[in-house]
Amino acid sequence: MEIKDAYLILADISGYTPFVKMHRASILHAEEIVTELMEAIIDAAGPPLILNKLEGDAAFLYAPAAARNNPDSQLIFAQVRGFFQAFKARQQALIKAGEGGCFCEACCNIEALQLKVILHYGQVVIKHVHHHEELAGRDVILTHRLLKNSLGIHEYVLTTEDFYSLVSSTGNADKPETHWENYDDLGSVKVRVFPPQSSSLEIPATRRFTNPKGIWEGLRLFARNFGRRWRGVKPNFANLVTD
Ligand SMILES: [Zn+2]
Fold first, then answer.
1. DSSP string covering 155-198, please?
2. How would you class 220 by CB atoms within 10 Å of its CB: exposed for 0-12, middle for 13-18, buried for 19 or more?
3. Closest of 124, 125, 116 to residue 191, by C-alpha
4. I need a labelling partner for 54 at 20 to 30 A (CA). Which of 1, 61, 126, 144 fits?
5. Ligand 1 centre from 158 Cα, in Å?
6. What are phi and psi of 51, to 5 degrees?
């Protein structure tokens, strides 16, 4: 077990409603789509970033810091901005691949998915449990807590002042907006918010019932649901994933 200074990065995908994520007809496709987007983000992350773990629709990454003011802050900030390009490119590819195809709620709402990234610099306790590396400490909690904030927007890079002071000292950061977030147990936290730099999506005008593969998939889902109802099978998550 050791204590280290580290850069902490939490990338979170949101946008699907609970209906999409829980509904029998769309849950598998929703998970596939979010997984593809998550992979695009992870592929865009290179050294010094290390993927610590996946947490549902979020990826938690970190980079141990050799010393304060080291050049890694610039590199990490540039990589995080690149996450948005990678995310949007994969999102566009998924929309295009599904054009006129499957008409489940997940496939018809890929454009609703958005990315937000939290960046913090602090101290972590690194512990090893069998082969798993676990990060703990106040700064890990703060990084996660910052996802719940008062911004009212769904796509952004949010950095704490601790991280921002490192990038801004090199003079290369854009001018962000300043906010304060208040938490009962962590107090007031000064944050900086950057809008994402990425191109907008092209949404095809014709989406449904024009792709034979998609029509077949839709009919298959419909027939399977109908067959189950006919046989009186009560739907639940166990039998959803096993057939
Ligand atoms: Zn679908």
1. SEEEEEHHHHHHHHTTT-S--PEEEEEEETTTEEEEEEEE----
2. exposed
3. 116
4. 1
5. 32
6. -75, 120
Tell the residue number behind the tokens 């509904």, with chain if given: 23
Average pLDDT, the chain: 86
Q: How much distance in Å is there from the Cα of 227 to the middle of ligand 1?
A: 19
N residues, the chain:
243
Collapse the DSSP code of 63 into the 3-class scheme (helix H, G, I; strand E, B; otherwise coil) and give the result: strand
Residue 42 has pLDDT above 90, yes or no: yes
Using CA atoms, how far apart are residues 150 and 102, in angstroms rounded to an integer?
36
| Distance between Cα 29 and ligand 1 center (Å) | 5
User: Taking the model in full, what pTM does it have?
Assistant: 0.83
CB–CB of 69/163 below 8 Å? no
For 151-196, write each residue's pLDDT tens digit. 999 999 999 999 999 988 766 567 899 999 999 999 999 999 998 7
List residues, by chain if needed, whose CB lies under 5 Å from ion ligand 1. 29, 102, 104, 107
Q: What is the DSSP letter of 228?
A: H
